[in-house]
Amino acid sequence: MTQESPGNLETMNIVIAGHVDHGKSTVIGRLLADTDSLPKGKLQQVKETCRRNSKPFEYAFLLDALKDEQAQGITIDSARVFFKTDKRHYIIIDAPGHIEFLKNMVTGASHAEAALLVIDAEEGVRENSRRHGYMISMLGIKQMVVLVNKMDLVNYNQETFDAIVAEYTEFLDGIGLTAKAFIPVSGMEGDVIASLSNKMPWYSDQTTLQALDNFEKEPLPTDKPFRLPVQDVYKFTKSGDKRRIVAGTVETGKVQPGEEVVFYPSGKKSVVSSLEVFNADCPSDFSAGQAASFTLEEQIYIARGQLAAKANELAPKVSKRLRVNLFWMGKQPLETGKDYLLKVGTVKESVRVEEILSVMDASDLNSAQKKDKIEYHDVAECILSCRHAVAFDTVEDISSTGRFVIIDDYEIRGGGIIREALADQQEHMRQQVMQRNLKWASSAIGRTQRWERYNQKAALILVTGKRNVGKKTLAKAIEQRLFTDGKIVYFMGIANVLYGVDADIKKPGDDETHRPEHVRRLAEIANLLLDAGVILVVTAIGLTQNELEIIQNVVDSDLIEPIWLGDEPTDIDFAMKVPNLDDFEDTLDRVKGLLQSKGIIFKA
Description:
With 604 residues, the protein is α/β, with parallel strands linked by helices. The protein folds into 4 domains: 10-214, Rossmann fold; 228-310, Elongation Factor Tu (Ef-tu), domain 3; 318-425, Elongation Factor Tu (Ef-tu), domain 3 (Beta Barrel); 446-597, 3-Layer(aba) Sandwich (Rossmann fold). It is 26% helix and 30% strand. It is built from 14 helices and 28 strands. The protein has a 6-stranded mixed β-sheet with strand order 2-3-1-4-5-6, sandwiched between helices. Strands 7-8-13-11-10-14 form a 6-stranded antiparallel barrel. The chain has a 6-stranded antiparallel beta barrel with strand order 15-21-18-17-22-23. Strand 7 and strand 8 (244-249) form a beta hairpin. The longest helix has 21 residues, at 511-531.
């Protein structure tokens, strides 16, 4: 048994799912045996082990490699199983049916091109049969065959089979999924696995193996717009190597040198200079499914989590608010007002449930209702609100970048699909910044070149707090300390902006009306100075989280270090809080320590 595909045989990934004890493992074991895909002597070895232990042989034992799995009688983890027919090689992803391990099915099924769903003829359609069907639909798997297993336990009765077909077909119709076939089988006896059975003369259609071979191989989505979630950016310095290599996996489309790419949500653009491959000849392009790495003609700042697309193709959506369908698998309910992590592609972003539009039990899709929380195994349509804007596609446009998972307490607790990008408060401002980045005329000297020359990383130190708490005093002292240490640093109060570049909108008594625009213009000035490699220390009265997010839209957020001065509560995500200036030198030492910990300045 091997993963290799000799000759011209193609490979297909298939997930097999079903309620616990409905016979998935037995079906897989029979498929392995009937296609001669087992290692030599394996079948006889397992049969002999059963004989020595006075235990009846079951084909499921061929899969149960772990002793604790055999003791429990359930498969507790996704397993990859390989077998072959004359047409192709198959990788069967065994998705556990036990309710406690349902989340493993999400991981398994997400890599599958087709699905086998097993239903026990004696037990009939169960809750997990419906849940698994819904998950298969949600994950975008269009091809599915339903195996009605254990027909031997119902005396191969056609009426039993027909009743299950009618019930499950009605359910599938409700979720927009059509089974390519329903097949009556007995995994234990081998009926209608590799050949038809004279025990069921009323069934003369395809066998299980024929149904597998009738699945259509999905072509790689090279014809879709280019998408590459950025995994990392690698820098090489040995022997004067100045390359910065953008790395990730191409989800859809293709890319080649000379093409202009845009990185979202920032909107920064550059042209692909070269494709890079370790210790091998460089290809002419990278296409869907391939790990890719390339350099850019202009050294723009790119961070992990951004989504690369071609400038002349359909752009991804960018928003802080998403309308989604999700399936919740956490023991604790998904609630509004609580922070979770949303993972789309390679980005992880803080997210909250803004509104729960409707909730249903996946085992009974007719019971949609309005609820204030999403409970274990609920399916919900809801609106998610992210702390920062993220880039994605709707699942109808590009399914791979339209799926997400939700992480709570370091564990995946839910997942789903993105249906729509919704407008958010800063959408217009974000569009302005993206337009600025698209039109940006870059200096011949790159950002990192300046950082290396100045021996510092550019940063925006935002000192904020209520009135009369000593913001300017602290900010100017930070400037002086850094200047004395030989850093390129500059202090700027918001008044410098109000009575300068904001003079056209600065009028007595209407500061609050124009405050968002004051903050935006302050951020644009900061962006210019940061591009020049400066450490900029800015003061502003009582910044809110919303105003901080305005600045984060304009300036790369990882360059911003907010400091809140005073005892008053605040909603901003500060890097440091200074209650007062009673111990002034200690406060300056703390600020310097913060900058050192962030790699902005270096320890002497």
